[in-house]
Target: B12-binding domain-containing protein
Amino acid sequence: GADDIAVIAGGIIPDKDIPFLEKIGISKTFLPGSSTQDIADWIKENVRKRP
Model:
């Protein structure tokens, strides 16, 4: 029952681990070098505001 909760991960994560993270519910993985703007844009586009 928590499908509406976006969970993001970031850091040094091996590429081979990303599909597993997605399978267990991680919505998005940001790797080193991801800009704060990229992260903020993803959140704005993928997380809906609560009423």
About this structure: The chain has one domain: 8-46. The CA atoms of residues 17 and 23 lie 10 Å apart. The beta strands are 8-10, 28-30.
